[in-house]
Amino acid sequence: MNTIYILMGVSGVGKTTLGKMLAEELCLSFYDADEYHSDANKKKMNAGLPLNDYDRESWLQSLSVAIRNWSNSNGAVLACSALKEKYRRKLISSPSVNVEWIYLYENFETIAKRIKLRKSHFFDPTLLKSQFETLEVPGYGIHIKVEDTPENSLKKIMKKINKPRIGLIGLGVMGKSLALNIAGKGYPVSVYNRQEGDKEKDIAKSFASSHDKDFRIPAYDDLKKFILELESPRNILIMVKAGSAVDAVIKNILPYLEEGDVILDGGNSHFKDTERRIAELQKKGLEYIGIGISGGEEGALKGPSIMPGGSEKAYKRIKPVLEAIAAKDKNGNACCSYIGTGSSGHYIKMVHNGIEYGEMQLIAEFYYFMRFYQKRSPEEISDIFSEWNVSEESYLLEITSHILKRKENEEYFIDKILDVAGQKGTGGWTTNSALELGVALDTITASVMARNISGLKLQKEKASELYGEWNTGLVDMSEKDLFAAYKSASIINHSIGFELLRMASKEYQWKLELSEIARIWTNGCIIRSSFMEELVEILGSKNEGHLLLSSDVIDHLNKRKKQFTTTISKSLEAGCPMPVSSAALNYFLNFIRGNSSANIIQAQRDYFGAHTYERTDKPRGEFFHTNWDN
User: Fold this and answer.
1) Which UniProt keywords apply (predicted)?
2) Which of 2, 269, 294, 512 could be joined to 525 by an S-S link, Cβ 3.0–4.6 Å?
3) Residue 400: which residues within 8 A CB-CB, separation 6 or more?
């Protein structure tokens, strides 16, 4: 349900004037309750006769129906006297309607003077006394004394209802969807998009005009005017491509900003760029918040997962908007939470995308195996994925199932898509960060490299001719065994991603709450699943170590250990590439071994480089060197 703002009070207090201004500020439709009076009521009031409760009955009923309809739509602003408590109760006949009452008041003498100056209105000024006698001041809602100009009264209202205005720069797919999401939640938003020849001409104005039936969204192609018409302190959301484009936008808006303004970067910026920008802008008295946003176009419009990091003080100012537009978890709480200081928000989004890379590649591998090594049709595989998803509730499994059923001219559409996978960099950034922190990232790194090798299309086609197809024929493997392997690899991929977050939190002193991060990933984002729901509980049980040491995860993997190893080994033996699945298995086998081959590595390093080693028969921390030639 969307909010209905009702400005109430006696006639002449400014309900209509302020109501129209508030509606424009909130990008909502305005309605005047006077227009819902019957002609008979209007004639009676114009003749100086006060309305009785019988006169008001049909009027209140009509308004009540309208209020329910507005609430089910986008919300609205209504100017209505609503002088008595019983009238107000009749207006709000449904408890599910969310109403913000705004009581406007002034003394009798001031209002009487205003009414005498009004023209072309059916209300007889002599009725004002009866209205003051009828008025029952509400003990709730926002109370505003309209002793100042309408503009200043509006500012007081906006401050009370905590509706920060957002200025959004960049109307790409995500920018447009977020702007509509913000407007749809009743928050005022204005938009700007650069003018760049015919390709990017009048984008902002065209966007606003195409939605003007639902929202009032001020649109600009003049950057200076866009910035200066935002109320201070400003909140500016940048939705442009990561990298130099973000820096260019910041450089262009800086001359018009003032101390206390907040810049929000909702793109996939590299976390080190975010750290640099925070430091640079703090020197100028400006706040910079890096916001990870996941959910794609649909999520941005209907409710994404939101990961803000930076100044907590600045976040609190914009928190109502972000929580309003975010997806909701199973308990109805927003899938948005303050991540931590610095660039933590963008770092979390980067790792989210790394896990996403791994999950996408896993599904692709099992599709490929069933398609070409078991000769199943895309539709059969779609049905299998749907069956798996009954328990998994994985967004990626769900959409892959839909993809595989799509046909064009009776041919499977998947076969018309070139097998070269692109990437925007976040997967590679995750791998680089893991290398810097010394964290093993087998599955995510393997998924990045799988995309890289897919780009070698011409070489791969040539190699296929030279080596021939390495395919041993149909592989007899049950769907149950395949699912066990998929599930195991997926659990390990998640564990690897959360381990990177745990180590990054220590390194950068972010104090990340991993359970809360899992919670905001349970809806809205691309990697949402039933297992993510489980991770909220697992990570919340004071588990401060590696996820693979958690009893719940151990139970998961022990049940499927034999199927996991057998399935992956048979797949590889048959000639099917399984980069992420096999990386998960290798990581797992390495992790569960009490000892490893690393002693040979240490001996080699000491032999050629005198790098020293520790001994099994000596305390940890003591290092030794051997003269291997003697």
Assistant:
1) ATP-binding, Gluconate utilization, Kinase, NADP, Nucleotide-binding, Oxidoreductase, Pentose shunt, Transferase
2) 294
3) 363, 367, 382, 385
Token pair recorded at residue 282: 């703090």
Question: CB within 8 A of 231, min separation 6: which ones?
Answer: 155, 158, 165
Instruction: Pick the catalytic residue from 106, 275, 356, 533.
Output: 356
Residue 44 is a catalytic residue: no
Residues 349, 359, 365, 487: which is the catalytic one?
A: 349
Task: Tell me, yes or no, whether 603 and 583 share the same domain.
Answer: no
**Residues 235 and 262 sit within 8 Å (Cβ to Cβ):** yes
pLDDT of 629: 87
CA distance 195 to 501: 40
Strand-pair category, 287-294 with 305-309: antiparallel
Q: Are residues 586 and 602 in the same domain?
A: no
- Number of structural domains in the chain: 4
Beta strands in 516-614 (DSSP E): none
Same domain, 50 and 182: no
Distance CA 371, CA 389 (A): 19
Tokens of 242: 């990561």
Distance of CA 412 to the CA centre of its chain: 32
Looking at residue 162, what is its pLDDT? Answer: 63
Rounded-to-integer distance, Cα 238 and Cα 171, Å: 10
Report the distance separating Cα 408 and Cα 387, nearest Å.
24
Q: Quote the pTM value.
A: 0.80
Tokens of 226: 């866009």
pLDDT at res. 542: 62
pLDDT of residue 122: 47
Cα dihedral: 616, 621, 627, 630 (round 10) = -30
SS3 of 185-236: the string is CCCCEEEECCCECCCECCHHHHHHHHCCCCCCCCEECCHHHHHHCCCCCCEE
CA dist 182 and 217 (Å) reads 10
Catalytic: 349? yes
Which residues are paired to 113 by β-bridges? Answer: none
On whether the CB atoms of residues 429 and 270 are closer than 8 A, the answer is yes
Task: Write down which residue in 289, 310, 342 finishes a domain.
Answer: 342
The answer to whether 554 and 548 have CB atoms below 8 angstroms apart is yes
pLDDT on residue 394: 97
Closest CA to 396 of 580, 185, 181, 588: 580
> What is the 8-class DSSP label of residue 140?
S
Give the residue ranges of the chain where pLDDT is below 70: 1, 48, 118-126, 162-163, 472, 542-543
Amino acid (1-letter code) at residue 522 = T
Place of tokens 């590696």: 546
Pair 171, 149 in one domain: no
d(CA 517, CA 338): 10
pLDDT at 1: 56
